[in-house]
Each structure stands twice: as C-alpha cells, then as structure tokens.
Amino acid sequence: MTQPVTSTSLHADLGAGDIDAPLVVGVLALQGDVREHLRAIAGDGVTALPVRRPAELAAVDALVIPGGESTTMSNLAIAFDLLDPLRQRIAAGMPTYGSCAGMIMLADTVLDGRADQQTFGGIDMVVRRNAFGRQVDSFESSVEFADIGGAPFHAVFIRAPWVESVGPEVEVLARVAGGAADGRIVAVRQGNLLATAFHPELTGDLRVHRHFVQLARAARTH
Ligand code: GLN
Fold first, then answer.
1. For domain 9-220, which architecture applies?
2. pLDDT tens profile 138-187
3. What is the DSSP letter of 94?
C-alpha cells in the first residue's frame, strides 16, 4: 500500500541537506512597494516570490508585508481570501517582517485606524497609525538599531506609525532620537515577527532584510 506523503516524511526524505535548500521568502503583493522588497530580499540562497493567493502563501517559508496603506491592505486581504490563512500562518510561527503599513498589519491593536480595519496580528503591541502628524508626514532620521550591528540605520518614515506600547514578550529594537517624537518606538521583535515603522527597502542598506533572512533561517533549522 502506498503511504501518504506528509510534510514530515518529505522532510525526512530530504535529510539534513534540506536546510541548504533555498529559503523561500514571500512578499505580500496586495498593494504597496512590493518590488523594492523582492529586490532587497532576493539573494544568496533566498528565493523571493510575490504572494497574492492562499496557495502561494502555503509555498513560502517566511513573509514580508510591505508598506502601503493598511486600510487598503485589510480590504484586499479579505477580498483575496488571505486574512484567515495569514492569521493562521503568523500565529503558527511563520517568520514575518512588516514595514510601515506592514507593521500596522502585525499589530494586535491599532489606534487611529478605520473602524472596520482588520490586522493579521501577532505582535503584542499597540500601534498608532499616521502617528507622526502632519508637519512630519515624511522624514528621515538616524536610528540605533539593536541586533543589526554597525552604524546607525538611516531610516525613512512615510506617514509612519509608531508603537505606543508593547507587551512583555516584545523586544524594542529602535527608537527615534530627537525632535518632537524623541524616544518613540519604531522597531520591534516578538519571536519570529519583526516590524519597523520605517522603510529599509528604500535605502541601499540591506541590514534589516539580512537580519530578517537570518531569523527566518534560524527558525527553519530549529
Ligand atoms: N499611513 C499608512 C497606513 O496607515 C502607512 C504608510 C506607509 O506604509 N508608508 O497604512
């Protein structure tokens, strides 16, 4: 009798070598700056793919949620039948990185959102949408970013959220220095989930993406 092939037996058949297989990282491609993230994430041993359908989501090891507009992303996730599959994968530990609107989508609680706005959740944090206000709709700031090493990160903020508060499991990785928003939290990690209020895909500095890829690899080999 033929045995059903389960993902466990598949992994067993591949043996120890499977951890050398390319890591497949999806970029949620409902809306936003998808192309820039695909370019930033693809590289040595990493295949980057746009994700628009549940079947595409099932094929990735990790996911990037780009910046854009979280209310639109919420509508499209529902229209494309991705809201529940994404919530389930994230809750089950899929390494996920959200930038700007992507950070909002990973928040358990959103302030100043649209009343019917949905998130995927996963990070025990309260995020305020469009938090930096009108005068500083867009700005750039140098942030000390724990975990990525080296020089401060040149961070680009575009109608960005900030993290108003975090739960006990959340590690704060970066805060804005100076100005009216001094000390506001703009990068966090909880387990396999990483989020930044800023857009590292718009600068040539790939340290945040590399850090995320490392985190995703570590999650696969455990
Ligand atoms: N203000 C946007 C929102 O609420 C986020 C902006 C961005 O991703 N650049 O979704």
1. 3-Layer(aba) Sandwich (3.40)
2. 899 999 999 898 899 999 999 999 999 999 999 999 999 877 778 999 99
3. -
Residue whose CA is closest, atom 2 of ligand 1?
69
Closest alpha carbon to 182 in 162, 207, 202, 199: 162
pLDDT band at 15 (very low <50, low <70, confident <90, very high): very low
Query: Residues 106-130: pLDDT tens digits?
Result: 999 999 999 999 999 999 999 999 9
The catalytic site residues sit at 100, 199, 201
At residue 20's C-alpha, the angle toward residues 4 and 44, to 5°, is: 130
Question: Is 158 a pocket residue for ligand 1 (Cβ < 6 Å)?
Answer: yes
Q: State which H helix or E strand residue 212 sits in.
A: helix 207-221
Query: Which atom in ligand 1 lies closest to the alpha carbon of residue 68?
Result: 8
* Helices and strands in the chain, H and E counts: 7, 12
Please, are residues 106 and 191 in contact by the beta-carbon 8 Å criterion? no
Q: Which two tokens stand for residue 133?
A: 């206000």
- Residue 157: both structure tokens together: 């903020």
Cβ–ligand 1 distance for 131 under 6 Å, the answer: no
What would the DSSP string read from start to end of 128-156?
A: ETTTTTTTTSEEEEEE--TTT-SSPEEEE
Q: How far, in Å, from the CA of 103 to the mean position of ligand 1?
A: 9
